[in-house]
Structure formats: structure tokens, C-alpha cells
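Whiteboard transcription, Tuesday session. T.W. wrote the C-alpha cells on the left side:
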């Protein structure tokens, strides 16, 4: 007993000192000496240092070149230009017929009569979609080597019956950022003290990608390049199992699914959960063998289909989440003892192998499950269709159609214009989606409306209904006779200037990309105005916010202006109308109701205290969607910045200190426009820059709740993400560009603002029964009706604008992006 204890202490010390080799991870057996080990390529042992993405890719390329079990492909690149590699690992014989295997595998999902009993199972293994949950990508080094080099009969039989799609880094930019931090702060004598700098990344940390998006929320919306690559792979192969390797708090052990049963999306078949639980037995056996602790069915959920472990469940696959307690560096003291980085890697590696063992042993059962999933889907499909669109915004409609096509969902043109439920669905601006197609379950998931739930706690959002997110009109149970020809590939409409004018040009504000066009015009030094009223010109109707570009007194002559606007219209996919007269029905073009637009120069506060996801979404919106500059000023040096050069300052959701408040106050009083989101509204109000009245839920006396469940009671008061309806005053500049009288807003906070007594000061106001989709507690549901998610007040010569809701959520909430753009171009007139 004493010798065993001394041996355990020696092993723990050796691992802490990083005195390890590959045998720490690998099962015993014979390995092909011609296959290079990770250390021979990256110059350090797995787990000795955090693998940087460049070294990870270098090894995977060498590994693929040295093994006839592996092929490698580059599916694209990240925002920072890093490759998105995928390794296909299977037997050499399977590689010779890989396209035929893929074709038959897909065919089996279309025809239940296809015999799958002799086919290989397909397993997609993805690592570290959160870059600072790095044990996964480091385990991919050992996994790749093991599958390439092992000469055991078990591995050869596994590869004969399995096609493994190995995605070594789902988030290359985040992994690189975190590896740099962990490695540059590593001591020679590893210090496991959690207070050491190594375990406290600086803002915005490595969890997210370049624009600070949590990519494990993008499997369904597919807005980011990394997501587009993996979704294409998914639909090309339709894997039977997809594993998603994560990390969690350092004091945790290891989690594998299934999660809490009551938190599974009702659209997921029960058989999916049954198979997940059967696979879990293989994980348990593998972890018992190495003595690692674990748990299951006590945490996490399978509700939001935008997560990697849940997205497969609505696509006939089985998604499996792994969560390893994180060392967050190279070793850290925890309540379970010293947690070393190599130990976390070994657990991830073990889970990867136990998945493959389960896939091999359960192969026929899982293959037939996938067949049955799609057969049931075909047999239960409705003979009707849904339709979506916006008769005044082709671009927004296009982007939703684009998401559907990325998921291999068939869409059709509208055969001809028609009205349904008071909405006009216009050809070229709308699409019909037949429900009698293979992926109709996925379509249902995308447009799902749900307001009642078995469980009141959610790991992520409780609603994502796509027609609300994209802000388009929507109708269901439409006759298939409304469908025109199938659209092979959606395209953005071509912008155009209708005619050369000697008077001026008009541009409707309804189209999604009009802010991009307007910014380009203003940055050229041209004058532009916007309308405060509706009017008609030349038989065309123009609404609030219409942009007017006069011909006279511009820096370009009439010919050059026309040619320049042609370029703007083409690049921004908008129509610009050349008019022949300034005489209108309604306000004329020379009216004072056309207000001059100031060229904006926008800054945003970022850094410690600011929510990185929220600021990243805004940065992405400006930079990627509208080609606009936004200067990101870090809180570290805000005090030394001359703010007078900026017209607008955006402060995302934050918990800022008050040391810079006087600087911002002075800037607003001199004419600046500050735009604050969510908790920033409280900060601005507490510093007397805006007068707000907050409301909150009244929690009644809690009865019949045990001590065990008291946390669940409080957790149920949190709005994790739901969709609410608000009525809008379209004459107010904040709502310019919206054609309907109501708007759908995403909300994930319990920040409630009481309305102003003057109705015109409530241009956006929740309706009396606002819940459209998602979960809200009974207590909060009593408070939210008729509250307001937006406020604007004068402060000196400037304006203070606040939103309680996120108008830019996860890059796919196209429907409310224009609210932020309206504050930028019209904020000084509100």
C-alpha cells in the first residue's frame, strides 16, 4: 500500500513537471515506426506546451502525408486567414472507394430499402470550438497519431468499419490566441496557484473567434466562415455521430451526454436520447478503466439546435457533448487536487476512443436509426408549404434563403405575387419552402414557435424563430400551387440607378444594405438628406427616412455623380431613383422636412467590463456587413483619448467604472450621441445622463420548494433568450426603414423600462401580450407588457440613447440591425 501511494505521488509530480511522453495517453500496442510522432514535428510532447494552431496544422499535414489511412483537405479559411482543415481517417481500402462510400451513405438516408449492414459508420469528431478549451485540440494530436500508427487488430477492424472525420480545431483563431497566452505566461516550475497570471486571460480571451463570436451557437444560423465549412462537411457526409469536445470549470470532473432529459428539444426523437445513453455506457467503462471521475444527466441540455452537440439531433445524427474540467493553463489547484493539462488531454482522448468503440459496436443499430429518421420524416411531411419575404427588402430575404440552402433545404420562387394574412409576398422578394422534403424537420426547427416547456432552465436561448430573427413576413400552410420553379442558388438582387438626373436621386431606406450605400456616399464627401415625412414622386411612394442626394452643390459634377452612384448601387444591391422634378405629392425635395445628414465617425468602448460577444457583434456588423469604420477604444486608455473627433460612441452591455463618466458627459453635452446597451443603460442613468424608471418582477412567497431545488426557482427568473413583440411608431427616426407596425425583438435580460407619459416618447413599446416565442417566467411575464426597450433623451447639445435588448444578436438577427444604424445616421435628430 505504501509503495502504491509513493508511486501515485511520483506520477502526479512527473505530470505536473511535464515529464511525460506519448505513452501517457496511448493504449498499449504496436505502433508503426514510420508514422511520425507529434513531438518529432512540433518539437515538444503533447501537453508539454499548448499547441498553437500553426503547429497543429503542420503536424496534421505531415501525418496525412505519411499514412495511407488519412486524407486531408482545406475547406476554407478563418477571418484571420487560418486554414480549416479536415482529416478523413479510414482503412486504405475504404479510401480507394471513399466517394462511393459517401454516395451510398447519403443514398441510404433517401431510401430505406438500401442495405446498410455492411457499410461503415461515419463519425465526425470536432475539437475546441471554444479556443480556450484547449484540451480537445491537443488531444487531436494524440488521436490522429493513434489512428494512423496503431497496428492492433482492433484499430484495423475499427477503420475497416468506420469513416472518421477529424476536425482538429473548430476555432483556429481562438485556439491560437489562447495558446499564445498560456505559453507566454508559463513558468519553468509550473505554478498551479489559480491566482497566477497564467490562469487569467486578458480581454476578450480565446473562447471566441476573430469577431468575438461564440461559434458553438452558429451551427444553425451559419453566419461565420468556420461554420460554413463544417456545415458543408456535415451535409456532404451526414455523419451518424458528431462529438463536440469542450471544457468547463476547473473544479468539475468530466461530463458526457445525455444531459438533463427534461431539457431536450421536443422535436428530437426519443430514440436519439436512448442511443446517446447507450453510448454513454462505453464512456463510463473507458473512464473507469483509467480511474477518471465523470457524471452524466445532471447538467447541460439539448434544446437549442445551434449548438454542435444538438444540431445533429435534428438531422438524423447523434450529437454528443463532452465537458472536461479545465486546467486553463498547464496545471491548477482544484478541490479535486492538482488538475494538470496532460490529464485533461488524456480524458478527451479517452472519450474520443470510447466514442469510436461505441460506433463500431453499435454500427448497424445507429445506421438503421438514421435511415428510419429520414423515412419517418418523409412519411410525416405536410403537403403544404411555408412562405417568407419582405416586399421592400430583397437583401434580408436573400440572407434567410441563403441559410436554408446551406442546409440543403429546397426553396422555390413565388410563382406570382399574392397576399396572405394581410402581407404581400412579391416575386423576387419572397421564397416558398415545400414541407414535403427530406429536411422538413430541420425547417420546422428553424421556424419553431414554442411558449410552453417541460423545464424552465436553459443552457442557451429558448427561441430563435428565423422569420422573427430576419424580420421577414411569414405564412404557413400555403398551397404548393404558390411555388414557382426551384431556386438552384439564391443571389442578391442587382442594384441600379434608374436614370441620370439633373435634380437629384432618391434611395429608399427599407433595403438592408442602404446604410452601406449611404456611408459610402457620405465618405465621398457628398451631401445627403433624409425625409421626415412620406411623399410621392414620379408615381413612386417614398417613406420616412428616404435618402435624397441632390445634384447641385456637390463635389462631383452631374456626370461623375451619376457614375459614382451607379457603383454604389451595384456594390450595395440597392436601387437609386433619378428624379426629373423636385415637386412632390407631399413634401417637396427642397422642404425643410429633408434634414441634412452628418458624416458619422463612430467609436465603441471595449475591454474589461464590456461583454465581448456584444461588442464583437457590433464590430462585425460595421466591418463585414456595412464596410464602415468603428474605432474600438479600450477602457485601458480611454482616459487619454480625444473624444471630440467622434460623433457617436457605442457602449455595449457593460459594467463600467465611473472614473471616465465626466469625460463622456462632457462629450455628449457638446453634441455627441452615446448609445448604450442593456446594463449600460443603468450606468448612464445612475450617472444622471438619462432619466429612466426601472421595473422588476415581484417574486411572491415561494412555497413547496425544497432546499435541493431552490436554485432552480431563482434560475427560472432568468430570460436566457426569447422573442417579444413590440409596436412601433414608424414616424420616429429610430424606426425608419421598417414597413410594418410591429417588430420582433430578441431579449436575454430582465431590464424593464417604464414608458414615458408622452406617447411620442415611446416609439418602440412592447404590446400587452408580447411573447412570440420562448420562455419567460410568470413573474416576468406580468412586468414586460407595455414596457419600452428603447429610450432617447437630450443631454446638453447631444443625445443619450439606450436599448434594453441586443439588436445585433449573433449576426443572424438581421431584423433589428437597422435600429442601430438609425441611431448612427439619424441619432442627432431623435
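and on the right, the sequence the group agreed on:
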Amino acid at each position: 500500500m505504501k509503495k502504491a501511494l509513493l508511486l501515485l505521488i511520483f506520477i502526479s509530480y512527473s505530470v505536473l513537471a511535464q515529464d511525460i511522453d506519448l505513452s501517457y495517453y496511448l493504449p498499449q500496442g504496436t505502433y508503426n515506426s514510420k508514422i511520425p510522432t507529434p513531438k518529432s514535428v512540433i518539437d515538444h510532447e503533447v501537453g508539454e506546451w499548448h499547441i498553437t494552431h500553426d503547429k497543429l496544422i503542420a503536424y496534421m499535414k505531415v501525418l496525412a502525408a505519411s499514412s495511407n489511412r488519412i486524407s486531408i483537405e482545406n475547406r476554407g479559411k478563418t477571418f484571420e486567414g487560418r486554414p480549416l482543415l479536415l482529416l478523413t481517417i479510414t482503412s486504405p481500402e475504404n479510401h480507394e472507394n471513399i466517394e462511393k462510400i459517401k454516395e451510398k451513405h447519403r443514398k441510404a438516408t433517401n431510401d430505406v430499402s438500401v442495405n446498410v449492414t455492411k457499410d461503415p459508420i461515419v463519425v465526425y469528431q470536432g475539437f475546441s470550438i471554444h479556443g480556450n478549451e484547449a484540451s480537445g485540440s491537443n488531444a487531436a494530436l494524440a488521436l490522429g497519431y493513434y489512428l494512423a500508427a496503431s497496428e492492433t487488430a482492433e484499430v484495423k477492424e475499427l477503420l475497416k468499419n468506420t469513416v472518421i472525420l477529424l476536425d482538429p480545431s473548430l476555432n483556429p483563431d481562438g485556439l491560437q490566441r489562447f495558446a499564445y497566452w498560456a505559453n507566454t505566461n508559463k513558468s519553468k516550475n509550473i505554478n498551479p496557484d489559480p491566482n497566477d497570471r497564467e490562469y487569467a486571460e486578458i480581454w476578450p480571451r480565446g473562447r471566441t473567434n476573430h469577431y468575438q463570436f461564440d461559434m458553438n451557437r452558429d451551427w444553425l444560423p451559419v453566419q461565420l466562415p468556420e461554420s460554413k465549412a463544417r456545415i458543408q462537411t456535415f451535409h456532404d457526409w451526414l455523419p451518424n455521430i458528431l462529438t463536440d469536445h469542450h471544457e468547463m470549470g476547473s473544479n468539475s470532473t468530466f461530463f458526457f451526454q445525455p444531459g438533463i432529459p427534461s431539457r431536450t428539444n421536443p422535436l428530437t426523437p426519443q430514440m436519439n436520447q436512448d442511443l446517446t445513453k447507450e453510448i454513454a455506457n462505453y464512456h463510463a467503462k473507458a473512464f473507469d478503466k483509467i480511474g477518471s471521475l465523470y457524471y452524466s444527466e445532471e447538467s447541460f441540455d439539448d434544446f437549442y439546435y445551434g449548438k454542435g452537440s444538438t444540431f445533429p439531433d435534428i438531422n438524423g445524427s447523434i450529437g454528443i457533448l463532452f465537458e472536461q474540467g479545465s486546467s486553463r493553463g498547464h496545471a491548477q489547484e482544484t478541490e479535486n487536487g492538482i488538475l494538470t493539462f496532460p490529464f485533461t488531454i488524456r480524458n478527451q482522448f479517452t472519450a474520443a476512443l470510447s466514442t469510436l468503440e461505441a460506433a463500431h459496436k453499435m454500427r448497424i443499430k445507429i445506421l438503421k436509426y438514421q435511415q428510419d429518421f429520414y423515412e419517418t420524416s418523409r412519411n410525416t411531411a405536410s403537403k403544404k408549404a411555408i412562405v417568407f419575404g419582405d416586399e421592400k427588402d430583397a437583401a434580408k430575404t436573400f440572407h434567410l434563403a441563403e441559410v436554408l440552402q446551406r442546409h440543403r433545404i429546397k426553396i422555390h420562387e413565388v410563382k406570382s405575387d399574392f397576399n396572405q394574412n394581410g402581407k404581400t409576398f412579391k416575386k423576387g422578394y419572397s421564397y416558398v419552402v415545400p414541407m414535403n422534403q427530406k429536411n422538413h424537420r430541420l425547417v420546422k426547427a428553424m421556424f419553431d414557435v414554442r411558449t410552453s416547456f417541460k423545464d424552465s432552465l436553459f443552457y442557451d436561448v429558448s427561441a430563435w424563430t428565423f422569420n422573427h430573427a430576419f424580420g421577414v413576413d411569414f405564412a404557413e400552410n400555403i398551397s404548393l400551387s404558390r411555388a414557382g420553379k426551384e431556386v438552384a442558388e439564391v443571389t442578391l438582387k442587382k442594384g441600379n440607378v434608374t436614370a441620370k438626373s439633373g435634380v437629384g436621386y432618391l434611395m429608399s431606406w427599407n433595403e438592408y444594405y442602404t446604410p452601406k450605400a449611404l456611408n459610402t456616399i457620405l465618405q465621398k464627401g457628398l451631401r445627403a438628406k433624409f425625409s421626415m415625412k412620406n411623399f410621392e414622386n414620379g408615381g413612386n411612394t417614398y417613406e420616412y427616412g428616404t435618402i435624397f442626394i441632390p445634384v447641385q452643390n456637390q463635389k462631383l459634377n452631374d456626370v461623375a455623380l451619376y457614375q459614382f452612384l451607379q457603383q454604389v448601387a451595384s456594390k450595395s444591391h440597392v436601387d437609386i431613383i433619378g428624379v426629373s422634378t423636385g415637386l412632390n405629392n407631399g413634401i417637396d425635395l427642397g422642404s425643410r422636412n429633408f434634414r441634412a445628414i452628418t458624416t458619422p465617425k463612430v467609436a465603441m468602448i471595449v475591454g474589461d467590463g464590456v461583454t465581448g460577444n456584444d461588442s464583437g457583434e457590433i464590430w462585425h456588423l460595421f466591418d463585414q456587413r456595412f464596410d464602415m469604420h468603428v474605432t474600438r477604444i479600450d477602457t485601458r486608455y480611454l482616459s487619454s483619448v480625444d473624444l471630440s473627433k467622434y460623433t457617436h460612441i457605442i457602449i455595449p452591455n457593460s459594467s463600467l467604472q465611473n472614473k471616465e463618466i465626466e469625460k463622456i458627459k462632457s462629450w455628449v453635452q457638446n453634441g455627441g450621441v452615446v448609445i448604450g446597451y442593456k446594463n449600460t443603460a443603468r450606468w448612464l442613468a445612475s450617472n444622471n445622463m438619462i432619466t429612466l424608471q426601472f421595473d422588476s418582477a415581484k417574486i411572491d412567497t415561494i412555497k413547496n420548494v425544497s432546499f435541493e431545488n431552490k436554485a432552480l426557482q431563482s434560475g427560472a427568473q432568468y430570460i436566457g433568450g426569447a422573442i417579444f413583440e413590440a409596436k412601433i411608431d414608424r414616424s420616429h427616426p429610430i424606426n425608419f426603414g421598417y414597413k410594418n407596425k410591429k417588430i420582433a425583438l430578441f431579449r436575454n435580460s430582465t431590464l424593464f423600462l417604464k414608458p414615458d407619459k408622452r406617447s411620442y416618447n415611446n416609439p418602440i413599446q412592447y404590446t400587452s401580450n408580447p411573447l412570440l416565442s420562448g420562455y419567460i417566467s410568470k413573474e416576468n411575464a406580468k412586468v414586460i407588457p407595455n414596457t419600452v426597450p428603447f429610450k432617447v433623451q437630450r443631454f446638453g447639445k447631444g443625445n443619450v440613447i439606450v436599448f434594453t435588448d441586443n439588436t445585433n444578436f449573433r449576426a443572424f438577427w438581421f431584423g433589428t440591425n437597422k435600429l442601430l444604424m438609425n441611431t448612427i445616421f439619424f441619432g442627432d435628430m431623435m
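Someone added at the bottom: The chain is about 30% helix and 20% strand.
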